[in-house]
């Protein structure tokens, strides 16, 4: 099965560090450029069997009060979808994660992760006989430590797991290494596969891991519709 993990930055499409300031209005309002970016992402998603997205807006002012998951489902043609709302900022934004699939989805987990600043989560579903787990961790190392522990506990009952997301940390991170060692996950991304920033990637922050099932052909894409690059892989025969 073809698998995609992508932090889509709510379709904002930051192209360089300066854009974080000069295109600040894209952070808080719906724009034609954002709609075009979402259309491109949706078409890209159609090439995959399972897709995990982070930083998707689920119906705030900045998305024109339209659920971006529904927009992307329509553009991609992927028939099955579940979403998770993690942080609501007034009427401006509804931050979340989403899982899309060509195959039926059995929802399993919608966990809010611990942290000093709330708004991070773990979303998991069974697709065929594999648990697909999607997450987006905090920036702080202390929060990441607690969040990795929570993820390990939540996914412990399941034998065949693909875990992906924006971990906001490099493979060499102390807490990331502890999590993998204690939970027996195999990491399929590396320092040689940087995904951030998209316009000159230097940091490997977006990762795909597995336990009890094989992953092959893991690579970082070149598509620049976000400040992150997409990460792709193949889930071996299930």
Structure description:
- There is one protein chain.
- The chain contains 6 helices and 12 strands.
- It has helices at residues 19-22, 25-28, 32-45, 68-76, 141-155, 174-183, and strands spanning 2-7, 50-57, 80-89, 93-101, 105-112, 121-127, 130-136, 161-166, 186-187, 206-211, 215-220, 231-235.
- The longest helix is centred in the middle third of the chain and has 15 residues, at 141-155.
- The protein is globular and about 45 Å long.
- It has one domain (2-235): Endonuclease/exonuclease/phosphatase (Deoxyribonuclease I, Chain A), CATH 3.60.10.10.
- A hairpin with an 8-residue loop joins strand 5 (105-112) and strand 6.
- By secondary structure, the chain is an alpha+beta fold.
Instruction: From the 3D structure, determine the CATH topology.
Output: Deoxyribonuclease I, Chain A
The low-confidence parts are: none
CATH class: Alpha Beta
Q: Give the neighbour order of strands across the main sheet.
A: 3-4-2-1-12-11
Shape: globular
Straight-line distance between termini: 8 Å
Give keywords:
238 residues; alpha+beta; Deoxyribonuclease I, Chain A; six-stranded mixed sheet; 6 helices; 12 strands; 24% helix; globular
């Amino acid at each position: 099965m073809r698998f995609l993990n992508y932090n889509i930055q709510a379709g904002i499409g930051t192209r360089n560090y300066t854009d974080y300031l000069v295109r600040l209005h894209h952070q808080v309002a719906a724009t034609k450029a954002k709609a075009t970016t979402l259309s491109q992402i949706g078409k890209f998603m159609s090439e995959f069997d399972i897709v995990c997205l982070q930083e998707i807006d689920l119906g705030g002012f900045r998305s024109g009060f339209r659920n971006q998951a529904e927009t992307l489902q329509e553009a991609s043609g992927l028939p099955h979808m579940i979403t998770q709302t993690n942080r609501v900022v007034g009427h401006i934004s509804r931050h979340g994660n989403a899982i899309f699939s060509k195959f039926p989805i059995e929802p399993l987990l919608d966990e809010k992760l611990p942290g000093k600043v709330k708004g991070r989560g773990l979303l998991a579903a069974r697709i065929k006989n594999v648990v697909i787990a999607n997450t987006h961790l905090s920036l702080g190392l202390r929060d990441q430590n607690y969040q990795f522990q929570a993820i390990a506990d939540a996914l412990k009952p399941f034998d065949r797991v693909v875990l992906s997301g924006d971990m906001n940390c490099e493979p060499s991170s102390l807490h990331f290494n502890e999590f993998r060692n204690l939970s027996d996950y195999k990491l399929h991304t590396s320092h040689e596969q940087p995904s951030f920033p998209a316009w000159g990637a230097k940091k490997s922050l977006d990762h795909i891991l597995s336990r009890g099932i094989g992953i092959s052909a893991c690579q970082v894409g070149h598509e620049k519709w976000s400040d992150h690059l997409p990460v792709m892989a193949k889930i071996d025969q299930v």
